[in-house]
Amino acid sequence: MMRRNRQSVALHARSDLDGRSFNPALPPLIEIIVQDTVRRILTARVYDVAEQTPLDPLKRLSARIGRPALLKREDLQPVFSFKIRGAYNRIAALSEAELARGVICASAGNHAQGVALAAAKRGAAATIVMPTTTPGIKVAAVQGLGGQVVLHGESFDDAYAHARALEKQTGAAFVHPFDDPDVIAGQGTVGLEILRQHPDPIDAVFIPIGGGGLAAGVAAIVRFLRPETRLIGVEPAEAPTMKSAIEAGRVVDLDQVGLFADGVAVRRAGSETFRLCRDLLDEIVLVDTDAICAAVKDIFDDVRAVAEPSGAVALAGLKAWAARHPGSGALVAINSGANVNFDRLRHVVERAEIGEGAEALFAVSMPDRREDYHRFLRSLDGRSITEFNYRWSGDGTAQIFVGVALRDGAAERESLLKRLTADGYSVVDMSDNETAKLHVRHMVGGRTIGLPHERLLRFEFPERPGAFLRFLNSLQPAWALTLFHYRNHGDDAGRVLAGVSVPPDQQAALSAALDELGYPYVDETDNPACRLFLDGAA
Fold first, then answer.
1. Residues acting as catalytic residues
2. pTM, full prediction
C-alpha cells in the first residue's frame, strides 16, 4: 500500500474548499496541490467537445469474479480517447492573443487527435509534431481534424524536442500530453463523472497510467470526495514508469519500454503527475501482454467494443487485483481509448486465450512412433488441442509444440503438467515464455545441425524502410545469418528473432556491433524454447 493509515484518512477527510485541511494524512504542499486540482476539475471546460461517457456494467465479468465490475467508456469520445478532455481544457484556458499564435504539441497518438480537435473548436491553428515512423493512418486522422502535421525524428523524444524548438520560434502555446495542471484537471472530470454516475460505494477505481495525467486527475477528485475508495494505478509490466518513480522517490527515465500498449508506453512520468500519484494512489498493479489481451476480449464479450491495448490495461489490473482481494464491493475500470490498428487485433486474438488461462502451451518430447501420439492424446483426457506443431527430425525422437484448451486456468495447467510428466513425457511449460509465444510457435519445423556458435537474438526493429538492411550492414561478412523471423503486428516496432553464427573469439565484437546498432534486443540463445525447437545440439 502506498498511502498509509486509510482509516485515519477516511475519518478526517473533508469535502470542502474553504481553506481548511480536508486530509491531515497528506503533506501540506500536496494538500494544497490537491485542492488546487479539485478546483480546476470542478471548473473545467470540457463539454464543448467531450461527451459524458457511460459507466457500463460488465455482467459476464461480474459473474465470473463474484462482484460488480463497471467500465467507464472513454472509448466513446469523439476522438475515441479521454485525451480530448485535457487538451480542450488547456486550450480553453488560453487568451485570445495566445489562441491567435496557435498551439503546438508532440504526439504520435491520442493526444495529437485531441489537440487537433480542441484547437479547431477554439479557432486556433494546431501544429502537431509526430515522429517520421508514425503510421500513416494516425497522420491522416490528425490531418482530418484540421491539424498541421510536422514529421520529425525517429522517436517521440526527437519530435518533442522539435516541438519545443518550434514553440520558441513561433510563440505558439505548448499543450503537454499530461504534465500540466489544466490537462490534469480536464482528465480528472472522468473521475467526477464516475462518482456522479455511481452514487453507491465503490470499493476501488482502476486507472491506466502512462505519463500520469489521467491517474493524477482522477485520484485527486476521488480522494477528495470519496476518501474511502481505493485508487489503483495500472501499468504494463514492460512500461512501469510511475511505479519505478514512486519506488525511487523521484521521477526516473526508463531505459526502454515495451510498445504493445503504446498509449501508456512512456519512458518518464511527469513531475506534477508524480507528486499527486505518489501520495494519492494506494498501489500500482503491473499487467503483462497476455492479461491485457484477455481484457480486450472481456470488453468485447460484455459490451461489444474493441479497446486499444492501453484502453484495456485498467481492466486487466482490476481482474488481477480482484483475484487477490475477494469481496463484494463494486470495482470500476477506465477504458481509456479505442484507437487500435486493425492489424494488431491478430496479435490480441492469439494471446487472449493464454491471458485468461484458457490455453496452455507445452513443449513435449516423445518417441517418434505413431502409437505414441495416440497415447499422448489419451493423456490429455479429452481436452481440445489448439495447436500442434511437429516435424520429423530423423533421430527417433519427436519434439512437439502443442497448445491445449483449459477449463480451469492455472490450476488445471499445473495438474495437466504433472499428469503428462507422470505418464513419462518430458514436458516444458511454454505458456509464460515470451519468445515461444511470439516467434517459436510459428517457426517449428525441425532443428538445424552443425551450428555450434549460433546466437539467437530477439529484437524490436523500428517499423520503417531500411531497418532490416541496416541490421544486415551491422554484421561482419564472416558472420552468417542463420535464422530470421519477423511478424508485423501493426505496431510502431517490428518483433524479430534472428540467428547469427559467430566464432567464440568474435562474440564481444558482435555485442559491440549490436549496441552501436541501437535496436533493443535480448539474447535468447539459452531460452528453452529455442534450444528445444531450433538448436540441433539440444
1. 83, 336
2. 0.77
